[in-house]
Design brief:
The complex is a heterodimer of chains A (about 180) and B (about 200). Chain A has about 180 residues and is α/β, with parallel strands linked by helices. In chain A, about 35% of the residues lie in helices and about 20% in strands. A 5-stranded mixed β-sheet of chain A has the order 4-3-2-5-6, covered by helices on one side. In chain B, α2 packs across α6. The chains are: A alpha/beta (about 180), B alpha/beta (about 200). Chains A and B meet through α1, β1, α2 and α3 of A and α1, β2, β5, α7 and β6 of B. β1 of chain A pairs antiparallel with β2 of chain B, so a sheet runs across the interface. Chain B: It comes from Mucilaginibacter rigui.
Chain lengths: ~180, ~200
């Protein structure tokens, strides 16, 4: 792009001056290139950084002396079944009828909040949740369940292996 | 009435400031850029409300999808050190070239007995090569456990810091695979690890 000469004609004759070259450099092309590269780098960088959800497992230990027994009345078991279904019951398997619910706001979260309050009121202690994923559940189910723990601020929970009796429960209700 | 003469102005705009800004941004993006690592299998990460970002250093990442497990560790020095230790363990002598190649491989999913052949491939062929995943049987052939243990040792000796273990799994991944990996962690007394999740914007409660 040429700079327009706006300096006017100038005097005729007189001394012959060497023509002053403009010190301005045309930057248009350079800016074009810079923006092109910016666009490229914006596109290739990962925009959202992955988030990490911390999981702490109870230490598998041979000596059991540090372990405290938890009353059945304040332990809630969540069985993760197939087809995005959850079964929950309080206490030991077989003694109370499990209920099948969904994940999410109106399913698992509601139950967790309700039961947490109930148990807090009746026993004066916090609820302990055991998450038992069955072999038919998937990774998303596990993450969802753990996420519900974080949302409902349940501090004491554990991922535990499922018992055969509990698999039977899932099978009976068609969630396995 | 005399005609008002409009002074002719140059149509060129001063681009200096714009150029400055553009290059400033460019520098910023170049410095912060981290090339996206391609997952060897398609992975759809579940969403959660977790808000802690994954740290950039001293991280071991296990990518789990379609029943296969892939191994990633950050840092070329750690990768090299880990490979050397693994070589000692499995009695495989790696050439310096192979070590160099290995330190540039972002995601690894090859059994030990195929690793040398894999590292000898051309760059293009290595990209196309379908990695079978690291064997992680709980009985005899548990290479994944060795990889994890050796990386932990390497990080401890080189950076003097604990290694963070994280799992990046596919939504549809069945639980037994996850269970096996958690089992491997527990055997090595890794009680704290993290699941990588995407961000879910949901009002709390």
């Amino acid at each position: 792009m040429a700079e327009l000469d706006t300096s006017g004609g100038g005097k005729k004759g007189g001394k012959v001056r060497s023509k002053k070259a403009s010190t301005r450099v045309d930057l248009t092309a350079m800016v074009d290139l810079a923006f092109l590269l910016i666009t490229f780098f914006i596109m290739t960088t990962t925009l959202s950084k992955p988030k990490a959800m911390d999981v702490t497992m109870p230490r598998k230990d041979e000596n059991q002396k540090d372990q405290l027994p938890v009353a059945a009345s304040r332990s809630m078991t969540i069985l993760l079944g197939a087809n995005n279904k959850v079964e929950w019951f309080i206490g030991e398997p077989g003694k109370s009828a499990p209920e099948t619910i969904n994940y999410g706001k109106d399913g698992l979260r509601k139950i967790l909040i309700e039961k947490g309050k109930e148990i807090q009121a009746s026993t004066g202690k916090y609820m302990v949740v055991l998450i038992k994923p069955s072999d038919k559940s998937n990774y998303k189910n596990l993450v969802d369940a753990l996420d519900e723990m974080a949302i409902t601020k349940i501090e004491s929970f554990a991922i535990v292996d499922i018992l055969p009796a509990e698999v039977e429960l899932l099978k009976r209700d068609g969630n396995y | 009435m005399p005609r008002v003469k409009v002074a002719r102005k140059s149509t060129a705009i001063d681009m200096t400031a714009m150029c400055d800004v553009a290059f400033l941004l460019l520098t910023f993006f170049i410095l912060t850029a981290k090339p996206r690592t391609e997952d060897p299998v398609p992975i759809d990460v579940p969403a959660s409300t977790a808000e802690i970002p994954l740290p950039e250093e001293n991280v071991l990442l296990l990518t789990v999808g379609q029943g296969k497990v892939f191994y990633t560790v950050e840092g070329t020095d750690i990768r090299k050190q880990t490979l050397e230790q693994m070589g000692e363990k499995y009695n495989i002598k790696f050439t310096p070239e192979q070590k160099q190649v290995f330190s540039g491989v972002p995601v690894l999913g090859v059994p030990m007995n195929q690793l040398q052949a894999f590292l000898n491939l051309d760059v293009d062929k290595r990209k196309e090569y379908k990695q079978p995943g690291i064997p992680n049987d709980t009985t005899a052939n548990n290479e994944l456990a060795d990889w994890i243990r050796e990386s932990r040792k390497a990080v401890a000796s080189l950076h003097n810091k604990p290694l963070r273990i994280s799992v990046k799994g596919d939504n549809k991944e069945e639980y037994p695979t996850i269970k096996k990996i958690i089992g491997i962690f527990q055997k090595q007394r890794i009680d704290k690890f993290s699941f990588i999740t995407a961000v879910k914007n949901e009002p709390k409660k």
